[in-house]
Amino acid sequence: MTARRVLVVDDDSHVLAVLEKAIGRLGHAVRTADSGERALEIYETDSCGIILTDIAMPGIDGVELIRRLRLAGSRAYIVAIRGGGRTGGSDHLDLALKAGADHAMRKPVSLAELQRTIEQATPE
Questions:
Q1: What is the CATH number of the domain that holds 79?
Q2: Does residue 102 contact residue 79 with C-beta atoms inside 8 Å?
Q3: Mean pLDDT throughout 95-108?
Q4: Of 9, 43, 111, 118, which has the fewest CB atoms closer than 10 Å, so is most exposed?
Q5: pLDDT of residue 85 exceeding 70
Q6: Is 53 a member of any domain?
Q7: Region 23-29: what's the mean pLDDT?
Q8: Domain span at residue 53?
Q9: Could you tell me the CA-to-CA distances from 15 to 1, 8, 98 in Å, in that order?
Q10: Integer Cα distance of 77 and 103 in angstroms
Q11: Strand segments (E) across 16-124
């Protein structure tokens, strides 16, 4: 598998740290952003091939981030991630897919699911 540049976006510092470590262990270069705003700043200078973004964030949420990336012409493979919470998160994941996400996953994300998803986004 080819190493890829992955941008992980989540406002929860614990989730961000866990995903950064897990994706790094898979051999990929990882950048992190704690907000949609920061993700857009990073993407302007470092166009990562894969973006994993939480949906529920203050400010620019994941759905809006996906919309803005697609409007800017981003061809990154975008994965929307969402915790279940009280509403289950299904509607939010559907919105993310309609906004241009390539894949959607529920938290907690298993390492095996994460690896499969990145492999699907990576040319062999």
A1: 3.40.50.2300
A2: yes
A3: 93
A4: 111
A5: no
A6: yes
A7: 94
A8: 5-118
A9: 25, 10, 25
A10: 8
A11: 29-33, 50-54, 77-82, 103-106
Could you report the per-residue pLDDT of 30-71, keeping only the tens digit for each? 999 999 999 999 999 987 999 999 999 999 999 999 999 999
pLDDT at 124: 41
Q: ∠ CA 111-10-76 to the nearest 5 degrees? A: 75
DSSP conformation class of 10? -
CA distance readout (Å), 26 to 18, 19, 94, 120: 13, 11, 28, 14
Total domains present in the chain? 1
Within a domain: 123: no
Rg (alpha carbons) of the chain, rounded to whole number: 13
Q: How far apart are CA 104 and CA 93, in angstroms?
A: 6
Place of tokens 């990562």: 48
